[in-house]
Structures are given as C-alpha cells and as structure tokens.
Amino acid sequence: MSGGVDSSVVAGLLRRDGESVIGMTMQLWNQKRIPETAAEGATGRCCSLDDVYDARHVAQLLGIPYYVVNFEDRFEQQVVKPFVDEYLAGRTPIPCTLCNNFIKFDQFLEMAEGVGAREIATGHYAQLSWNAESGRWEMRRSVDRGKDQTYFLFGLKQEQLARTRFPLGGMEKTQVRELARELGIPTAAKPDSQEICFVPNGDYAAFIEGYFREQGIAQSATSGEIVTAEGKVVGEHSGVHHFTVGQRRGLGVAAAEPLYVISTEPATRRVVIGRSDDLLRASMGVKNVNWISIAAPATSIRAEVKIRNKHLAAPATLIPAPDASRVEVRFDEPQRAVTPGQAAVFYQGELVLGGGWIE
C-alpha cells in the first residue's frame, strides 16, 4: 500500500470480497537524505510521511492489519547504486523496473510469505491469466492503455506471477476512482505520482552528485568534450551524467538546426551530438531477456517492440542469439533514440511476450 488510490482500492476490493487481507507499505528511501533533490509537496513517492499516513488511515478504515516494512538497505543496493552506476557508464537506467524485479516481487513476496500470505496484490495496471495448454502465466496490457504498466513488469518470473494479483488491470482509471468513492476511501482524488521516487524533482544529475557527496566518495572526473558525429570538437560539458540519448535541451552548443545527443562515451568523457536523423537505428541488441507469456523461441518471431514507456510499439523481427539470454531486434522502420540501459519489451497485440535491456 503506497498511500495512493490504486493500492487502496485493491485493498478495499479484496476486503469487500471477503478475503483475508494484510496491508503493507515498503519503506524504501529516506527523502531527507539528498535535500537538493527535494520537491515541494511531493507525495506518492513510496516513502513520504504523508503517504505512509494515508496508507495507514485506509487500512484502519478497512479494518485490516497494517505494517510498514523497511527495505531501505536492499533498495539502495539493488536500485539506487545501479542507477548511479548506469548513468556514469553512459546508459539510461529504469529504477522502477529494478524495484519491481528485486524488491516488490522478490523481497516483498518473501515478506508476505513470512506473515502467512499466499499471494500479494498490487495496484499495477496489467492483466494476468493462466494458459493451461502452455502451462504458463500470461501477461497482457491493461484495459486502460494510458495507465498500462507492463513495460515495467517484463522481468517477472513465472513463480512470481503465480503468487501475484493485479485486480485493476481490467479497469479504467476513472472506474478505479469511482470505486474508491464507493468504498469510502479518502484518497479517491489523490493525484498520481510521476517522477522516480528517490528523485522527486527529476534532476538526476543533482541526485548523483549529492549521493557522492553524502557518501564521501570523490567522484571521478566526468567533464569533457562535446563533439559531432564526425569527431569535431564543438564545446565542453561538466559531466556525461547530465546527458542521455535523444536529449536536445541544455547542450550549450549554438547551431543553425536542432542538435541532439547521439551517444555518450564515458571512457573518453565525450558527448556526441548530431542531427535528428542521426538518432535513427534499424536494429539493436537486447540482453538478459526474460520470456513471460511464451517459452524462449528457437527461431525468429514477429513482435511489436517498445523501447520507452511512452513509445508506440514498433513492428520488428526478433532473432534469438546463440546466447539464449540475448535477442537481436530488427525494426521494420528505423526507430529514433534507441537508448542503452532502457528496456525493450516485446508484444504480440495485447500479449506481453517478455523483454530485456537495450545494449
């Protein structure tokens, strides 16, 4: 229970249906640790005092036991530190997916088992069903496409899906808020959270620099040159972690046409910029692939591939590599701003085949 309307409605629905329910909030990050990234009035950030209060209040109204469980150490090791390392290595990480893989559907499942709960139920917008013929749990996009969260859930294993419920996957968000009002849940009109929970103001570079200062670690020099795709030096920058592929603003380079970050090269501390067409890629490698709704294919298959959460999935051919954990993706039409470190998630219509990390 995050304190938001979605998880509160899930608890209310299960309680109304006569289920034995325990509410739990995960304490993941102390929001006071990096004050320079604080956002005024931030809620829904997984750890704010207001959100814990809201979750506890909902649990009291529903008459269910409620606990706050502390996963701060695991969260820092499995989510925050990899986030910092990935940015400094020139990749753009997705901490929400890491949190799902290593905290919410791993440690949290273990915690649930420890208190005698057979399953966990969350407010994620996704749909699960059992396919008796294939013997697999299948994941599908949520009915509300605007709220669909399957992009962030590609790493879940069959054993995790077997003990998970997504009660909101078949609903529109407007229905969820209406249910909240019917159930008497006080967070019915609470706004949704938008940013990464531990960087509420969205300034990732400031967070990384603040984190190093807090840890007393001397950050390696990351400043360097801004160069064109042809290698011409056109400027300087204060750190590669300030840039991500596809970025246009904040380059500090005057030009007659819009310029974008094409790549970052931490080893040489160079940021490569170019025109919009330079961002197009016809293929990409995907590593650490997790197959959900199907077994790992032995031959090429067709799919639609999302390379960002808001990206319109693009038709492509998936070609299995000799290493079973890798796939080559060949797009029908070149895609813009394929970003190392982001997720690539594979779909066939509504069905989520699986996904992995862009190399």
What does this structure look like?
- By secondary structure, the chain is α+β, with helices and mostly antiparallel strands.
- The protein has 3 domains: 5-123 and 167-182, HUPs (Rossmann fold); 221-274, SH3 type barrels (Roll); 280-358, Elongation Factor Tu (Ef-tu), domain 3 (Beta Barrel).
- 25% of the residues lie in helices and 26% in strands.
- The chain contains 7 helices and 16 strands.
- The protein has helices at residues 5-16, 49-62, 72-88, 95-114, 158-161, 173-182, 204-215, and strands spanning 23-27, 66-70, 120-121, 127-131, 136-140, 164-165, 224-228, 233-237, 260-265, 270-274, 280-291, 301-306, 314-320, 327-336, 343-348, 351-358.
- Strands 11-14-13-12-15-16 form a 6-stranded antiparallel barrel. A 4-stranded mixed beta sheet has the order 8-7-10-9, with no helix packed on it. Strands 1-2 form a two-stranded parallel sheet.
- A hairpin with a 6-residue loop joins strand 13 (314-320) and strand 14.
- The longest helix is centred in the N-terminal third of the chain and has 20 residues, at 95-114.
- The protein is globular.
- The mean pLDDT is 92.
